[in-house]
Amino acid sequence: MYKRIELPYSYDALEPHMDAETVKLHYELHHKGYEDKLNKAIELKGYESKVPTSLLELCKGYLRLPDEGLRIAAREFGGGLINHNFWWQLLKPNVEMKESVLKGEIIKTWGSVENFKAVFEKEAMSLFGSGWVWLVKRRNGSLKIVKTFNQDNPWFLGFYPILGVDLWEHSYYLKHKGSRKTYLESFWNLVNWDFCSEEYDKEYKR
Ligand code: MN3
How far is the CA of 171 from the centre of ligand 1 (A)? Predict the structure, then answer.
């Protein structure tokens, strides 16, 4: 059985940048839905003993799963489950970016943190439909911004995610209605740069 992480804070902990109702629905309805549907798909096929115990391993190797339906379930629901496990850990109000290897790499790559944010936002604004935009670490330590559609993610692509923004309408529509722009502005107040820096410093394993 693959599991959601426990929400690391109360529903209202991200106010005023992200409203409690959005957090609750996002976690209890959408995130739970990915968890339930993934486990159900595996059970229905009787594949409990044929899948890796780790969700990360399932996602990294989904293309090698022995059944088409299972590959789709791992990609869509497994992707949704792991992406949101990352998402809730990424969010924390008012964490300033400290000096770190990550900050140095961002400045080296985009000239300044402000310019990085501008480029990232531009990518996020231009993503068509539902998906995510990510800052990822490549095997050689360099950084790159990547877009993924639906619940695809950096793990599928062999990258390591450092930060990502959920661009499905369920993540912002209650508060921001059609404005992805104001959602993104609020998002920067919620990036836990300490978490991002720790993710960057982790040793890269395939
Ligand atoms: Mn979502």
Answer: 6
For residue range 101-146, list pLDDT tens digits in order: 999 999 999 999 999 999 999 999 999 999 999 999 999 999 999 9
146 CB-near residues (< 8 Å, 6+ apart):
133, 134, 136, 154, 157, 159
What does the CA dihedral 31, 33, 35, 36 come to, rounded to 10 degrees?
160
In angstroms, what is the span from residue 201 Cα to ligand 1's centroid?
Answer: 26
Mark residue 46 as left, alpha or beta (left: phi above 0; alpha: psi -120 to 50; beta: remaining).
left
Cα 10 to middle of ligand 1, angstroms: 17
Which residues neighbour 160 within 8 Å (Cβ) at sequence distance 6 or greater? 136, 137, 138, 154, 199, 202, 204
Only one residue has tokens 């229905």, namely 44
The Cα–Cα gap between 109 and 128 comes to: 25
The residues placing their C-beta within 5 Å of ligand 1, an ion, are 166, 168, 171
Provide the pairing of β-strand 131-137 with 160-166.
antiparallel
Q: Residue 150: which region, alpha, beta or left (left: phi > 0; alpha: psi -120 to 50)?
A: left
Q: What is the pTM of this model?
A: 0.96
